[in-house]
Amino acid sequence: MRHSESIESVRSYYDALGEKEWDRLPATVRGRVSLEVHRRFFADSCGLAGESSR
To answer: What is the pTM of this model?
Structure first.
């Protein structure tokens, strides 16, 4: 395997992982609550209160 193929393989893996993560939390009530709690925490911490998610 060439170096460029290896890099592309790693990129593809993490791109797919990221897509799954967007779907993971909204899939359950517990996940939606967790997502909202963390979204609000980060918004307050970063001075982004009132901004929409995603």
So the answer is: 0.52
DSSP conformation letters of 1-54: --HHHHHHHHHHHHHHHHHHHHHHGGGSHHHHHHHHHHHHHHHHHTT-TTPPP-
Q: Give me the domain span that covers residue 23.
A: 17-47
| pLDDT tens-digit map of 24-49 | 889 999 999 999 999 999 999 998 76
10 lies in a domain? no
